[in-house]
Specification:
single chain; 85 residues; mainly alpha; Arc Repressor Mutant, subunit A; disordered N terminus
Length: 85
């Protein structure tokens, strides 16, 4: 997972604080939610567009969002066995 986020682990960039955005995960030092960035990526927005929309974010924040999503998918989604051919 570290390879996906060379600037540091996603845990170093994303925090959950009950006093900020109702405890939803945000990027440190901002009120930009992880969900907002992931939804933008899922909608096809380029990282550069997201950074333009949210100037308080960095390219490493966007990479951290992707790393978080990858780690979450790995933990939450059961992987079925590869069928024998």
């Amino acid at each position: 997972m570290e390879k996906a986020n060379k600037g540091g682990r996603y845990e170093d960039r994303i925090l959950r604080d009950p006093g900020i955005c109702g405890g939803e995960p945000v990027f440190k030092g901002t009120r930009v939610t992880l969900r907002t960035v992931l939804a933008s990526l899922a909608a096809g927005d380029a990282p550069e567009d997201i950074l333009g929309d949210f100037p308080s974010l960095t390219a490493e924040d966007v990479k951290a969002a992707i790393a978080f999503a990858a780690a979450s998918a790995e933990e939450d989604m059961p992987i079925s066995a590869v069928p024998q051919i």
